[in-house]
Write a structure and sequence with these properties.
74% helix; 2 domains
Length: 152
């Protein structure tokens, strides 16, 4: 019984002193980078920083799962909260992408950004041309213009 209790205490210690401080720092970094991007959508560096922070978080989650979490056998643990945490982290870890797959996502995102910038500029040119046609008055309501619609 002592070894099982020791394993449970080690898992708690790992989550409290190793995993939680690192994941908290990375989640904060993701939140700040995401905020910087959504408050200035035309800032390409902010978009890159947001993506980089998300990739760093995903890489951390996968590595922690691969190296530690998936090897913890919680079947004999008595702490239900700890068991629930490990169950959740196992699901997150399995869903996280490996580094090579993350790089593919990054490349696709960069391609998407280039395409999105092209369409944004094309639609902006349309707005400028339309404003010239309407005697220099800018269009105040752009609900029907694709520049206002999210691109998928």
């Amino acid at each position: 019984m002592g070894n099982k209790h020791f394993a449970e205490e080690c898992a708690k210690l790992y989550l409290d002193e190793t995993y939680e401080p690192q994941i908290s720092q990375l989640c904060n970094k993701v939140s700040l980078a995401r905020w910087a991007y959504v408050t200035n959508l035309t800032n390409d560096q902010a978009a890159e920083d947001s993506l980089r922070a998300n990739l760093e978080l995903a890489e951390f989650q996968f590595k922690q799962w691969d190296q530690v979490i998936r090897w913890i056998n919680d079947s004999d643990f008595t702490d239900d909260v700890l068991k629930r945490q490990l169950k959740f982290l196992n699901k997150v870890g399995v869903a996280a992408l490996e580094t090579s797959e993350l790089e593919q996502v990054r490349q696709k995102f960069n391609y998407f950004q280039i395409c999105n910038n092209y369409y944004y500029l094309r639609d902006l040119l349309f707005v400028v041309q339309s404003s010239i046609v309407t005697n220099g008055k800018y269009l105040r309501d752009c609900k029907n213009l694709s520049i206002c619609q999210p691109r998928l």
